[in-house]
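The protein record filed below.
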Amino acid sequence: MKAIVLINNFKNGGAERVASLVVKGLSDNADNEVHVCVFEDINNYKVSQDRIKLHVLADPSKRHLTNSFLKIFNLAKVIRRTNADVIFSFGPIMAGYVYFA
């Protein structure tokens, strides 16, 4: 199964903890191909990057509006390239990005 997990970052928080557990659970199965899409490269939950493919979608040097379009564009590229079976988005804002991508 090909899966994409979309979350803002892995700072301390409830959704971030659940996302890290989902990523760990998915990556434990060797048949799964797991892509993790984040906007910030912050990893407080120590998500192992051995069996996942991490995609940082945002560029912190860009302005806010430009960065929003860049996030949607980069997410759409990852979705097309991976041909994912399922997308897990954590939070209503992340679901909006998936919708537009």
